UniProtKB/TrEMBL annotation:
Origin species: Fodinisporobacter ferrooxydans
Annotated compartments: Cytoplasm
Molecular function (Gene Ontology), one example: hydrolase activity
Protein keywords: Carbohydrate metabolism, Cytoplasm, Glycosidase, Hydrolase
Function: Enables the bacterium to metabolize sucrose as a sole carbon source.
Reaction(s) catalysed by this chain's protein: Hydrolysis of terminal non-reducing beta-D-fructofuranoside residues in beta-D-fructofuranosides
Annotated metabolic or biological route of this protein: Glycan biosynthesis; sucrose metabolism
InterPro entries for this protein: ConA-like_dom_sf, GH32_Enzymes, Glyco_hydro_32, Glyco_hydro_32_C, Glyco_hydro_32_N, Glyco_hydro_beta-prop_sf, Suc6P_hydrolase
Annotated ranges, domain Glycosyl hydrolase family 32 C-terminal: 371-497
The protein's name: Sucrose-6-phosphate hydrolase
């Protein structure tokens, strides 16, 4: 190792030590409070945003995340790290990356991971503020490697891409790298004249990159900047997932501050051009952004997103932490080229006590269930065949005095699924509605994952997914079924209490 590399390693070690020591101290104070999630990934303390570097390496699943270890707010970005043998039981590891060099002095921004012949290689964006007001930036692509999957060394070749190839904007970030035939490919998010775009590079060795071209870009209707692009094949189609900033709300669509969605099409690797259909949102809930995917050794394409939204109120900041990732979801492409997300089956390992209703039940008015809890998986299937109710569904986190509840419902005539968090506790409220456009089924199947401050709803086997943060009182634990202005036939109901994987 030459002198320069030694210096880089030392600086990085000093910064990591500082961050890890600080986190340890915070954890000992144990101030995380009643909304601390039981089976989702969050930092041991303080802030997280995007999932980064998702990979299965030497048989274990690794998830990194954008992390500010020194406060519960966004700040100079580090990479936090957890790993798991089964996608369910996660273990916190020391922080993997800290800002330490001239090229990443103000943050190790989002990126991805690859297995380069047994070396776990992280590819990330080094962020540098060019002025005190933090209005001007320089963003460069960097790599860091590890053989044990825990300790990472920043590469002597950094930055491996020091500036955009064309006269693009300074926003140039979030590398996602994959291998196709003999080359590594990298897609990056950027913009030109306030229109978001994704650009493609290729390399033989992860260190020397050449520019291929523009993969896809906004025509003005798809946002001013594309963050966190991710590219993969599903069957014989190619998919580009990305998070455009600044698409205006339009009816039910684009209701969040920023969106995450996808384009399905075909990438011409020689020109870099991705021909594609129209943009679709991935998740219609309040809290979903910056999703990333990876391929596991069973050939599954698995996706994890950040289960929050920029500028949303996050009440847990007062308890010393903020931000969490969604449960892992398997992606499939439907015959009409829409992405379907299903919870990974491994999550069944969380199940404890099961409650079921024997046989079918006619629901009208309110039906209070025996099951209750903060951490539940619920499967409820309703028939539309003899339904004359205008609306039906379930309520979770209900308080005994009826003041708190979170409502998941189906409006029959409108074919709309809604989530209403106006009475969900101390967090932001609002109602989200999304029409089931494709389902021909005469059934509505809700598959719900409830944690202490989250609610993920999968409708009709992943045709529609809504991810949400809610902050109810810990005593609000009731579950109810309901039907308004008529009745609906409940075909089956099962619920499980779920385990707290973080409890020692
Ligand atoms: C997306 C994002 C990325 C960036 C990171 C910084 O949420 O803005 O574009 O790399 O967060 O934390």
């Amino acid at each position: 190792m030459d002198k320069n590399s030694q210096q880089v390693m030392l600086q990085q070690q000093v910064m990591l030590q500082k961050a890890n020591d600080y986190l340890k101290e915070r954890m000992e104070q144990n101030t995380s409070g009643s909304h601390r999630l039981a089976y989702h990934i969050a930092a041991p303390a303080n802030w997280i945003n995007d999932p980064n570097g998702l990979i299965q390496f030497k048989g274990e699943y690794h998830v990194f995340y954008q992390h500010h270890p020194f406060s519960a707010e966004w700040g100079p970005m580090h990479w936090g790290h957890v790993k798991s043998k089964d996608l369910v039981h996660w273990e916190h590891l020391p922080i993997a990356l800290a800002p330490s060099e001239a090229y990443d002095q103000d943050g190790c921004f989002s990126g991805s991971a690859v297995d380069d012949k047994g070396t776990l290689t992280l590819i990330y964006t080094g962020n540098v503020w060019m002025n005190e007001e933090q209005t001007e930036i320089k963003q460069m692509q960097c790599i860091a490697t590890s053989t044990d999957g825990i300790t990472f060394v920043k590469d002597a070749a950094n930055p491996v891409i020091s500036a955009p190839a064309e006269e693009e904007a300074a926003d140039f970030r979030d590398p996602k790298v994959w291998k196709y035939e003999k080359y590594w490919y990298m897609v990056l998010g950027t913009k030109k004249e306030e229109k978001g775009k994704a650009v493609l590079y290729r390399s033989l060795d992860l260190r020397n990159w050449s520019y291929v071209g523009v993969m896809a870009e906004s025509d003005g209707s798809l946002g001013y900047m594309w963050e966190c692009p991710d590219f993969f094949s599903l069957g014989d189609k190619d998919v580009l997932v990305f998070s455009p900033q600044g698409i205006d709300a339009e009816g039910e669509r684009y209701q969040n501050l920023h969106q995450t969605g996808y384009l399905v099409g075909h990438l011409d690797y020689s020109t870099g051009v991705f021909s594609h259909g129209s943009f679709e949102e991935l998740d219609k809930g309040f809290d979903f952004y910056a999703a990333q995917t990876f391929l596991d050794d069973q050939g599954r394409r698995i996706l994890i997103g950040w289960m929050d939204m920029w500028e949303s109120k996050m009440p847990t900041q007062e308890q010393g932490w903020a931000g969490a990732l969604t449960i892992p979801r398997v992606l499939e492409l439907s015959a009409d080229e829409k992405l379907i997300m299903k919870p990974v089956p491994e999550l069944q390992k969380l199940r404890k006590k099961c409650y079921g209703l024997a046989g079918e039940q006619m629901i009208f008015g309110k039906y209070i269930l025996e099951v209750e809890g903060e951490c539940l998986e619920i499967l409820a299937e309703f028939s539309l065949e003899s339904c004359d109710a205008s609306e039906f569904g379930l309520k979770v986190r209900c308080s005994e005095d009826g003041k708190e509840e979170t409502v998941v419902s189906y409006r029959v005539d409108q074919r709309q699924v809604t989530v209403d968090r106006n009475r969900s506790g101390i967090g932001p409220g609002g109602v989200r509605a999304s029409t089931l456009e494709r389902s021909e089924k005469m059934k509505i199947r809700f598959h719900v994952f409830l944690d202490r401050s989250s609610l993920e709803i999968f409708v009709n086997d992943g045709e529609l997914v809504m991810s949400n943060r809610i902050y109810p009182d810990p005593r609000s634990r009731g579950v109810e079924l309901f039907a308004f202005c008529g009745k609906v036939n409940l075909l089956s109901f099962e619920a499980w209490e779920l385990k707290d994987i973080w409890k020692k």
